From TrEMBL:
Record has Transport as a keyword: yes
Segments crossing the lipid bilayer: 40-63, 126-151, 157-179, 191-212, 267-287
Name of the molecule in the record: Solute carrier family 40 member
Keyword annotations of the record: Ion transport, Membrane, Transmembrane, Transmembrane helix, Transport
Intracellular or extracellular location(s): Membrane
Similarity field: Belongs to the ferroportin (FP) (TC 2.A.100) family. SLC40A subfamily.
Species whose genome carries this gene: Wuchereria bancrofti
Gene Ontology CC entries for this record: membrane
Protein function: May be involved in iron transport and iron homeostasis.
């Protein structure tokens, strides 16, 4: 977060580089790894056992920590401006940090600091747009545990889930590139509006998937047969841990494309849903880059790290709620 949201502003000022282009390139570099990694992960899981695949991922993550630390240190040392930041509080900042002094003493001692941080975030001119972006984390359709669990239950293998995630990342790269082009000829605000509109249109595919073959959507039958006892039992079963007897086996990958079925189950609905999620990445990342750039330009340098930290915390909170 420090590099992509805060440092990048200083780097672009030094090199006279467009902030929108730099943000877009950073996002494209990040998404490029997201194109390759899901496909590789899906192939590894399909080829070897889950146990050895997990060991490979753990070792890679441990090694990448040292590589990332080395690169960050090199970048920090290459830009002297990072060590010259003025951290003396301004009168406006002092007024903001005194906001919680009116609260009762026990609140000041417990969550007073958090109230101050949120107040700084709330006082920004870009608060409505920033908070709107965090709300997307609670409602956005993505390749998270819910979508992956649903797709697996419908018969899609880990390999195909990896391929679809890679397609989603590829659309994200296209969105980042289009954002840079559109922002150059118009503005970040208009680019964000176009991105949100594109995301909205792509999600109609997900709505259509509800009524396609293979969809388990049947609210009439569900509400006709559901009882409190059944609902309560299903809720308890969802928290139960069941050991997979086939945990050392590879994932099945027997999709019959002539009938669009996997293990006898039609996958048209699930496939359409995931394609809609993937295409929506284009508009989503355009909107994300737009709001992030507006925040980078409007938030004072002294408060930038605080504001983006609160922004990320709220976004993760809404993501957990989802």
């Amino acid at each position: 977060m420090a590099f992509t949201k805060d440092w990048i502003v200083v780097i672009t000022k030094k090199d006279e580089t467009s902030l929108s282009a730099a943000n877009a390139w950073m996002k494209m570099i990040d998404l490029s790894s997201s194109v390759v990694s899901p496909f590789i992960a899906g192939y590894i899981i399909n080829s070897i056992s889950y146990r050895f695949a997990c060991m490979i991922f753990v070792v890679w993550n441990l090694l990448s920590v040292f590589m990332e630390a080395y690169i960050i240190i090199r970048v920090h040392n290459a830009v002297p401006e990072f060590a010259k930041r003025d951290l003396s509080p301004s009168p406006d900042e002092q007024r903001k940090t005194e906001c919680c002094k009116k609260c009762p003493g026990f609140i000041q001692r417990t969550i007073g600091k958090w109230i101050t941080l949120f107040y700084i975030y709330y006082q920004q001119n870009v608060f409505p747009a920033a908070f709107g972006l965090t709300l997307l984390y609670m409602t956005v359709l993505g390749f998270d545990g819910i979508a992956i669990g649903y797709a697996k239950s419908q018969g899609l293998s880990a390999l195909w889930l990896g391929i679809l995630r890679s397609i989603g990342a590829a659309f994200g790269i296209i969105g980042a590139y289009l954002y840079s082009l559109i922002e150059t000829h118009s503005s970040a605000m208009k680019s964000g509006f176009i991105g949100l509109t594109a995301q909205h249109l792509a999600l109609y595919l997900c709505i259509v998937s509800i009524w396609l073959p293979g969809s388990p959507f049947d609210p009439i039958t569900y509400f006709r047969e559901i009882t409190f006892a059944i609902w309560w039992q299903q809720l308890k079963d969802s928290f139960a841990f069941v050991r997979d007897k086939n945990e050392n086996e590879t994932d099945p990958n027997d999709i019959d494309w002539s009938t669009w079925t996997s293990n006898g189950h039609c996958i048209i609905s699930a496939f359409t849903l995931l394609i809609g999620i993937a295409v929506a990445r284009l508009g989503l990342y355009m909107a994300d880059l737009s709001i992030s750039q507006i925040m980078q330009e409007k938030v004072p340098e002294r408060e930038r790290n605080t504001v983006f930290g609160v922004q990320d915390s709220i976004a993760q909170f809404f993501s957990v709620l989802k």
